[in-house]
Amino acid sequence: MADFLATIGKVLTLIGTLGLFLYGMKLMSESLQKVAGNKMRQILAAMTSSRIKGVFTGLLVTTTIQSSSATTVMIVSFVNAGLISLIASIGVIMGANIGTTVTAWIIALLGFKVSLSFLSLPLIGLSFPLFFSKNSVRKSWGEFIIGFAILFIGLQFLKESVPDINNNPDALNFLSSFTDLGFGSVLIFILVGTLLTIVIQSSSATMALTLVMCYNGLIPFELAAAMVLGENIGTTVTANIAAVVANVSAKRAARAHFIFNIFGVLWMVAVFHYFLMGIDLLMQQYHGISILNTHLSKADYEIIKNEYPVALAVFHTSFNIINTLILIGFAPLIAKVATKMVPDAGEDDEEFRLKFINTGLFSTSEIAIIQARNEISTFGRRIEKMYSLTQILMTEYKTKKYYKILTKVEKYEQITDNLELEIAGFLTRVSEGELSHDSSKKIRAMLKIIDDMESVGDAIYQLSKVIDNAQQSKLKFTENQKKALKEMFELVKMAFKEMNLNIEKEYHTVSIKNAYSIENKINEKRNQLRQQHVEDLKEKRYKHKTGTFYSDMFSIDERIGDYIINVSEAIQEYQDG
Fold it and tell me: Does 356 reside within a domain?
């Protein structure tokens, strides 16, 4: 019983040390995203015009913010918005893969070669005042330093909780049955690395565990390298799981990542032993002792054990760089295969779902706001398209196309209701976290925007019902009425285009002067039509019932214009935030 409890205690200690390491990494990543998130987004938008630029961009961004997941979120956003192609995104994903290897180098050089754990508490003490700063940038830097310190405290605990093979020879007993199977052992440890990454949900934490196990002699270098390959597969599996609820573009990007990494692992497995021999020769130049030698004396092991983490970092980096060099020319083919794997489900399916905020990948309020803003941009295009359908209803009557469009408008109205609820719920969850004053104002502005957009959807649906009732009553509008309604329709279309143009400008340097000009024209047109309508009724140019439907239609158009200008004003409020 005592042995059982001791074993449970050791397992929980190991899990706790991994959790501490992972929390430090998460704190570092989130704080860097807060400091550099907007700049990273600008870099991604500007530097993905070619695959080569995409690779360097992915490398730069992932190295800076220490999170390939955050890079993926931004890339998927740009693919969805049409800012970059799927092929360009593959280049960024390749660069992000190389960027993740920086974590291994930080751990290998600072966690093993130069232990920073003794400096961790002083670092926390120095950065603690920054943590309480009212300046959001200084506070984020404080969080970064604290995260950095916690990461190395976690790494030190991890090194101590994993048994040293020289002092605990029995620790290898349970692994011995898996380490002597030749090439089968390599495949088993690739699977172990994959499963650990899926379970822990962090390739960085799995990499840290692998480095420590190899450093302590628990597994030989060859099988540690096999685990690293498994981690490359595992990180793509987590991305594909996250993309299950995402849209077609996100799924394709996730599949492309999987194809890239799985192909890399396949060719590496084919040349595995030769590749390791090359790294072994490289490391022998420094110490004259083979890292592949599993029968080292205790003295030789003590000399070389600090080099195992460095050798693994060399393996991880060289593998990803070579894989990128091999496959960068095949990016169009990878995109084609990913597209085949995730075919377009059709316009209706793709139109009626959230594109950005259900990926489950965002980790900071800044990224969440970007996702919500992109979703609002899509929302704006949806209601503009919804409005254009009402014009077709005016020219069609009792045809198959007419009833199909009528049904689609009704479906759009339901979707606008759901969109408002989903986005509002998302923004509410974001606002429950820690936000800057600027971010709080932006969220309030976005809540106003989606409320008015939902009202636009309701008004358009009401307009479609008026048109349908008029059609069912077999009423005929006069040519002047048709012309007047068409002119009003064109003005409202202009208002929609201006609104969406302002949204797609990312709400920066937006002037709503033109939006006000269009709104004034809509109001003037409504007043003109109302006055003319009263005169036409007096002159009995059309029946009163026809006039009622006609009046309802241009009045609803004017109300839609009011909601649209409210959206533009909220955009300006966002900008002023």
Answer: no
